[in-house]
Design goal:
It is a single chain. It is built from 22 helices and 14 strands. The chain has a six-stranded mixed sheet. A four-stranded parallel sheet has the order 2-1-3-4, sandwiched between helices. The model has no long low-confidence stretch (mean pLDDT about 95). The two termini are about 30 Å apart. Helix 6 runs parallel beside helix 13. By secondary structure, the protein is α/β, with parallel strands linked by helices. Bound molecules: FE2/S2 (inorganic) cluster. FE2/S2 (inorganic) cluster binds next to loops.
């Protein structure tokens, strides 16, 4: 952080507004055209509010109001707010997957901040990919930035039972297929599961990533846990607006905050939350933008020493609303003091340690103490072996324990369509010991959608089977559960070992030993590889073609190779 405060003539926006030439005449007259007075903007920090609101994003449906609350804070602190809409990335609707567009929002964010007269930014996100995308873009641009999390929606409700986003959809979908509930029940679940603005309210990708943003120090303390519908959420939005103006004067930038220690803190939080497997991909990409080298091994190392304390679905019992009432993220982090680097700087100008100093747990059933963890370690585990030379991930806390160590014959599906066609075929030779394998669902093959919670065949569901070992190069929704090995790298599309698995091959998993092994000898694998043919590229033009040319594999964060790193991009010429 800079020791001295900036002066108005040091502001980046001064080049647009403050100089005496024909161009700045245009900038001023066009701002006055919108009804602003000269004193509204002259010599003030211009704050770009990157807003991912849209009519198709239910998780950000309250952002129309929140953006006014952010603006209120910016005006209060003497800044000039400018709302800059960015691509929305609405998880439930965008196909083939929002993952394909995360880097597009990152580019959108970076270029909005670069090309306009912005001194600092408020990043409004929450729905899964919006958080890492906004942070990636803002980190690359490296102007002062604060993240405003959307907040989780209220608990779902059905017949007096609490429902969790995604998690209970999968659960009751399986019950419907097994014949245990009827269509009317299913429709009522549909009507009760999402009943307020806000992101998914289990510890899915959204709650994990907003908690990551707060632990990293990019959000105000306590911000990530506030339910979207709570009046405190609006006050938090206004506080973000106030704070960013001072961050500009102080010149507190993302890369001052995003150190290797801050990423270690975030990984520790992910494990203690039993957070989404998607976080591994996003954190590696975010760290890459900050110039911090991060790999899967770091996640695994910290997983072994971090207890799971958040008793939240899908790994636990409660929902984000309960987490907030129980003390929220600050209370959880306070339990982990000895595992965190407390001196890390955060957006409010204080250290992480100072921010969690007074935090307390109000419900030790929801946020467990260190003496009574949900699990002593292992929120996530990174597996390696001849089936995943560059790694794969599993969430052991969301899998049935007997599948942590298991060997079974593979039942292989070549694609998602192939799986959908055959999975419920009564004649499919499969039982609860089988290992379901899905190929061609990785970053290049399909944009890496959340297909990784592969369905259990109907005939096994009817027999009461609710978990099986499943392996793919896809991702899995953070709201999902089960013994699902994900992110197998390299992916099948590039001819990796996953592409060479055949029906009946024995596959062994040993989570404790972090092992994923295909029991096929090297000579046979070499023979199969010689028969393998590269699949055709799907996209001939457009964003899909750009994506296919530049996306990296899951273990590298799926960023675009030309966006990684901290090499400087020139400021725009203002002529
Ligand atoms: Fe937006 Fe889950 S759909 S967070």
């Amino acid at each position: 952080m800079a020791a001295t405060r900036k002066r108005p003539e040091d502001l980046r926006s001064h080049r647009w507004y403050g100089v005496k030439d024909l161009r700045s005449f245009g900038h001023r007259s066009r701002t006055l055209q919108m009804g602003f007075a000269r004193e509204d903007f002259a010599g003030k920090p211009v704050i770009g509010i990157v807003n991912t609101w849209s009519d198709i994003n239910p998780c950000h449906y309250h952002f129309k109001q929140r953006v006014e609350e952010v603006k209120r804070g910016i005006w209060q602190a003497g800044g000039f707010p400018l709302e800059l809409p960015a691509i929305t990335l609405a998880e439930p609707f965008q196909k083939p997957t929002t993952m394909m567009y995360r880097n597009l929002l990152a580019m959108d964010t970076e270029e909005l901040l670069r090309s306009y007269p912005v001194d600092g930014a408020v990043l409004m996100g929450g729905c899964d990919k919006t958080t890492p995308a906004l942070i990636m873009g803002a980190t690359s641009m490296n102007l002062p930035a604060i993240y405003m999390p959307a907040g989780p929606m209220l608990r779902g409700n059905w017949h007096g039972e609490f429902l969790g986003s995604g998690t209970d959809s999968w659960k009751y979908w399986a019950e419907l297929r097994a014949g245990n509930i009827d269509e009317r029940d299913w429709q009522e679940v549909e009507e009760g599961i999402a009943r307020s603005p806000g992101h998914c309210m289990v510890m899915g990708t959204a709650s994990t990533m907003t908690s990551v943003a707060e632990t990293l120090g990019l959000a105000l303390p306590g911000a990530a846990s506030i339910p979207a519908a709570d009046a405190n959420h609006g006050r938090m939005a206004t506080a973000c607006g106030r704070r960013i103006v001072d961050m500009v004067w102080e010149d507190l930038k993302p890369r001052d905050i995003l150190t290797a220690d801050a990423f270690d803190n975030a990984i520790t939080a992910i494990h203690a939350l039993s957070g989404s497997t998607n976080a591994l991909i996003h954190l590696i990409a975010m760290a890459g933008r900050a110039g911090v080298a991060l790999d899967l091994e770091r996640f695994d190392a910290l997983s072994r020493t971090t207890p799971v304390l958040a008793n939240i679905r899908p790994a636990g019992k409660f929902l984000m609303e309960d987490f907030y009432y129980a003390g929220g993220l600050r209370a959880l982090l306070a339990q982990l003091r000895d595992l965190l680097v407390l001196g890390c700087m955060t957006a409010n100008g204080k250290t992480l340690g100072e921010n969690i100093e007074s935090a307390r747990i109000y419900n030790p059933e929801v946020i467990r103490t260190r003496e009574n963890p949900l699990s002593p370690s292992g929120g996530l585990a990174v597996l390696r072996g001849n089936l995943a030379p560059d790694g794969a991930v599993i969430k052991p806390t969301a899998a049935e324990p007997h599948l942590h160590k298991h060997t079974g014959p593979a039942v292989v599906f070549k694609s998602y369509d192939d799986m959908n066609e055959r999975i419920d075929d009564e004649s499919l030779p499969i039982d609860e010991h089988s290992v379901i394998v899905l190929q061609h669902a990785g970053p290049l093959a399909a944009g890496m959608p959340e297909w990784g919670q592969l369905p259990i065949p109907k005939k096994l569901l009817k027999r009461g089977v609710r978990d099986m070992l499943r392996i793919s190069d896809a991702r899995m929704s953070g709201t999902s559960y089960g013994a699902c090995v994900l992110h197998v790298a390299p992916e099948a599309f590039v001819g990796a070992p996953l592409a060479l698995v055949r029906d009946g091959d024995l596959i062994e998993i040993d989570v404790e030993a972090r092992r994923l092994h295909l029991h096929v000898d090297d000579a046979e694998l070499a023979r199969r590889r010689s028969e393998w043919r590269e699949p055709p590229q799907k996209y001939k033009r457009g964003f899909g073609a750009l994506y296919a040319q530049h996306v990296t594999q899951a273990d590298k964060g799926c960023d675009f190779d030309f966006l990684e790193g901290t090499a400087e991009t020139p400021e725009p010429d203002i002529h």
